[in-house]
Amino acid sequence: ALDCPTEALTASASAETDSYQLLFRHDWCVACGRCVGVCPEKCLQLERILELDRIDSPAAVLFEDRIARCRHCGSIIGSRAMIEKLQAKLLVMGEAFTAQLELCPACKVKDWE
């Protein structure tokens, strides 16, 4: 979502609802394909179709999950599903690697031992 040049694809985190969403605005998309190329899940597809009935419509929710928070300072670090998937992949490397996933960038550089 951070790579979208027109912000047609955005990530939104709400502390009030404790939800993390991936949102898409059809009318802002220029079909550059950057989102497809950088998607870590390889789950996005691009169709070069302009749907006139979707112009000026609100953003569509493509994905929604619980917020993942830094275990030290409580800041939002992403979606819970993303953290759990990365933890499963890194578990073979040991708990030291998976523990880092639950920290924000600022807390990762601090010594929490």
Span between termini: 34 Å
The proportion of residues forming helix, as a percent range, comes to: 10-25%
Helix- and strand-based class?
Answer: alpha+beta
Shape assignment: elongated
Q: How many domain regions?
A: 1
State which percent range the strand residues make up: 15-25%
Number of strands: 4
Let me know the largest β-sheet: 4 strands, antiparallel
Order of helices and strands: EEHEEHHH
Cα radius of gyration in angstroms: 17 Å
How many helical elements?
4
List the helices and strands and how they pair.
Blueprint (H helix, E strand, L loop, with lengths): L8 E6 L4 E6 L9 H5 L21 E10 L6 E4 H11 L4 H6 L4 H4 L5
Antiparallel strand pairs: 1-2, 2-3, 3-4
Structural features, described:
The structure is a single chain. The chain is of the alpha+beta class and 113 residues long. The protein has one domain. 23% of the residues lie in helices and 23% in strands. It is built from four helices and four strands, in the order ββαββααα. It has helices at residues 34-38, 80-90, 95-100, 105-108; strands at residues 9-14, 19-24, 60-69, 76-79. The chain has a four-stranded antiparallel beta sheet with strand order 1-2-3-4. Strand 3 (60-69) and strand 4 (76-79) form a beta hairpin. The longest helix has 11 residues, at 80-90. The model has no long low-confidence stretch (mean pLDDT 87).
